[in-house]
Amino acid sequence: MHRMIATLILFTLLALPAFAQQDVEQQKIAYLIESVATLQGATFIRNGTEYDAKRAADHMRLKLRFAGSRVKTAEDFITYCGTGSSMSGIKYTIRFQDGHIIDSATFLHGKLAGYEARMASDTH
């Protein structure tokens, strides 16, 4: 009985870092979606159709639900949910208020890098 309890405790302690890491990744994904949702004056272009920031974020949330267990990290989220259409293969783009256009993957990678840099500086 003691051996079983010790094994269970050991398993729990070993699993905690994985669960904590998953929480961190979920926070990063939530941050990326919120970064999209709150872009003022931006237009998201998906398969040639323009969408506002809120609808783009809603679409990413939907893709995240459909992606399921394939999305374990923020990088996975960008790859599977934020880069382009899985049907047509066409990249998503963002046209900002000033008129410049970038791929959504470039925008999301930049946001992720900034988030990770802030988190790293907060822990030091």
Alpha-carbon Rg, integer: 18 Å
Q: By helix and strand content, what is the structural category?
A: alpha+beta
Q: Based on CA inertia axes, which overall geometry fits? A: globular
Note the main sheet: 4 strands, antiparallel
Low-confidence segments: none
By DSSP, the count of extended strands is: 4
Q: Please tell me the total number of domains.
A: 1
Report the total helices: 4
Helices and strands, in order, run as HEEHHEEH
CA-CA gap between termini:
43 Å
Please state roughly what percent of the residues sit in beta strands, choosing from under 5%, 5-15%, 15-25%, 25-35%, 35-45% or over 45%. 5-15%
Q: Estimate the helix proportion, in percent.
A: 55-70%
* Order of neighbouring strands in the sheet with most strands: 2-1-3-4
- Quote the average pLDDT: 87
Can you characterise this structure?
There is one protein chain. This protein is of the alpha+beta class. It is built from 4 helices and 4 strands. A 4-stranded antiparallel beta sheet has the order 2-1-3-4. Strand 3 and strand 4 form a beta hairpin.
Care to give the gist of this entry?
The chain is 64% helix and 10% strand. The protein has 124 residues and is an alpha+beta fold. The protein has a four-stranded antiparallel β-sheet.
Descriptive tags:
four-stranded antiparallel beta sheet, 124 residues, alpha+beta, 64% helix, 4 strands
Topology:
Layout: H1 2-37, E1 43-46, E2 49-51, H2 53-67, H3 74-82, E3 93-95, E4 101-103, H4 104-122
Antiparallel strand pairs: 1-2, 1-3, 3-4
Helix pairs in contact: 1-2, 1-4, 2-3, 3-4
